[in-house]
Amino acid sequence: MVRRQRLVGRVVGEGLSDELRERRFVVLEGVDGWTHYVEIGPLSGAVLVGTFALPN
User: Fold this and answer.
1) SS percent in the chain: helix, strand, coil, step 5
2) Highest-confidence range of 34-38, 46-50, 51-55, by mean pLDDT?
3) For 51, what's the count of Cα atoms within 13 Å in the CB-facing half-sphere?
4) Do 11 and 26 touch, CB atoms closer than 8 A?
5) Higher pLDDT, 18 or 44
6) In angstroms, what CA-CA distances link 11 with 6, 15, 33, 43, 53?
7) Residue 39 gets which letter from DSSP?
């Protein structure tokens, strides 16, 4: 089952989850305190990743 929900955090890693199909993943450190593995799709697809700094 695929759950779709908003995830807020920072990207701490990325790479290929399937080299033959060129599928990518990111590892996020969420503001919920958990680390999340997220597949984001093929390299050929457009992916928008926003980054921002949180105040200390």
Assistant:
1) 0, 45, 55
2) 34-38
3) 5
4) yes
5) 18
6) 14, 11, 13, 17, 12
7) E
In whole angstroms, what is the distance from residue 29 CA to residue 19 CA? 24
pLDDT at residue number 12: 92
Tell me whether residue 24 is exposed, middle or buried, using C-beta atoms within 10 angstroms of its C-beta: 0 to 12, 13 to 18, 19 or more. Answer: middle
How many CB atoms within 10 Å of residue 26?
19
- Tell me the per-residue pLDDT of 16-33, one tens digit each, with 9 for 90 and over: 887 777 888 889 998 988
